[in-house]
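ingest -> validate -> predict -> emit
validate: passed (alphabet ok, no gaps, 425 aa)
predict: started
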Amino acid sequence: MIKNNEIKKKIENLPKSPGVYFFKDPQGRVIYIGKATSLRDRVRSYFNAGLEESRGPWISNMLTKAVDIDFKKTDSALMALLLESELIRKHKPLFNSREKDDKSFNYVVMTDEEFPVILTVRGRELSKNRKKIKALYVFGPFPQGNLLKEAIRIIRKIFPFRDEKCEVFGSRGKGANKPCFSRQIGLCPGTCTGEISSREYRKLVNHISLLFRGKKKELIKKLEKERNKLSKEHRFEKASELQRRIRALEHIRDMSLLNYEGFDDILWKDPERIMNEKDRSFRIEGYDVAHISGTFVVGAFSVIEGGEVKKSEYRKFRIKDKPGINDIGALREMVLRRVKHREWRFPDLIVVDGNEVHRNAALSVLSEVDLRIPVIAVSKDKNHRPHRYYGDKSLVLKHKKDIVSANMEAHRFALSYHRSLRERI
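emit:
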């Protein structure tokens, strides 16, 4: 399939590591840019049989014009994603967009105000509302919205920032602002509570902008310089926070992005094939509450990943906030406490025991923290067997066996914890 021996040789010499690759035309112009978690495997896949069926005529046409391949290594899938976007913006390759598609791509906007908000905006929205959207920085395009959301989630764990729901301290009168939900779970640095000055927040925004431009090494050097200065001034708590960020950047935890390997050319691939690839590590968490007449109220969640039970990742909760006969309140508390653990991978689907009311309770917590995770509720009959499902029917149909498994395991684990508490008396 590979006609040019020089290209074939280059492919075999590509590293099996994350990075960005470039296809070039005879004039040396970059005509296509992509990202990969394994550069060699990804670029080699372009020359497999049946290319047009799997990726379409657009990419096939690109390959007829390409005569050379180049690449840039990165140390993580996250940096490959960010560098790809920056290089697409710089080179504007012909085959990275089509007339009808490029306006639907996503962009990251940092607003130009005292405490900038970071948000995602569609290309068509951005072009229509340039005057209305006052931007300090704009990054993109990002062709895959799901990947961008996951990348932002990873970045926000390292560099908390203000979102659209977070008000600035004092905006409704002195002392009127309470901590926003993002502040409560550590995703906002405290712009709503006055814990961070505009000067410090601007510095934080500049750090994030360096990351979005793919300049991680430069960012780490800057953070190290600031950390050393803070240490000399005996501001050890602030220095420790910067050290934590440096360590997080040096060891980026982006396994969730690796789940999307094979999505690099999502515009051109077969949708059914994409779903099959993602399902290899599809994660479901099942939630249930246990108590007797409102006493010893506990909750627990189970984990099914890739169709396998993962008991080592089960978690249990002793309900603290107004325990009693209040399953909805207990469920809300449990989901809220779970999402605060950003070090745990978030699920692709949540299963709760109950009906539409229970489902809406879980969804409301997820909405408050700006997480878009589907929720299925499982209702039982008098023999405690599943008999009705609330939520996306296509998800129920596709994952029914694992949904039931997650639900039953959560019930068993919650009940076991409840009994252990009672036996301690």
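The CA atoms of residues 129 and 214 lie 27 Å apart.
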